[in-house]
Amino acid sequence: MASRGEIIFDSPSPAVDCQVSNLTVVGALLTVPAGTVVPDAITLAIAGEFVMRRCRVVWRRRDQVGVAFEMPV
Known about the structure:
By secondary structure, the chain is an all-beta fold. 0% of the residues lie in helices and 58% in strands. It has no helices and 6 strands. It has strands at 3-8, 16-21, 27-31, 41-46, 52-61, 64-72. Strand 2 (16-21) and strand 3 (27-31) form a beta hairpin. The termini are far apart. 16% of the residues are buried.
């Protein structure tokens, strides 16, 4: 089941909405709007959760990125 999420960048760029699926304790699959450039390190906020996760991108394909969780923020 997919959840709504938000990618928060380290730079002053505005946050980007995403769809979070394949969520596990170690990572997730993020589907982003076409053309979105996702840097190697991001913070992920998932709707309904009170913890933001620091992530590192481990792979990219078109409008999807796979992330590994580093630690709660």
